[in-house]
Amino acid sequence: MVSPERKQARKELLRWSxxxxxxxxFTCQICGDDQEIVGIRSHHLEGFAFxxxxxxxxxxxxxxxxxxxxxxHEAFMGGDEVPATKKTFTQFVCxxxxxxxxxxxxxxxxxx
Length: 112
Description:
Layout: H1 4-23, E1 40-44, E2 61-65, H2 66-76, H3 86-105
Antiparallel strand pairs: 1-2
């Protein structure tokens, strides 16, 4: 059985997620994809588990498609155990832009 506190936190998280999506027009703020293709996630810039004060602050959220969200957590951060922060997210975006620039300079293909 789920406690009343947990139910309330779930409701607040769903509301937060919806408001973040509204703020970003339900569009991935990295690649521009929307929910029609791969699905979207509301991502905490300062991690949910590590920053209780900002858990439901809409300004602490950004909309990402499932692919960009998974790329950040799994490939860049190495899983959910590492605290997500605004700083690491900014580093991730800079990394992606660096890759895009590298690909552009090399004729849109990766060079080994």
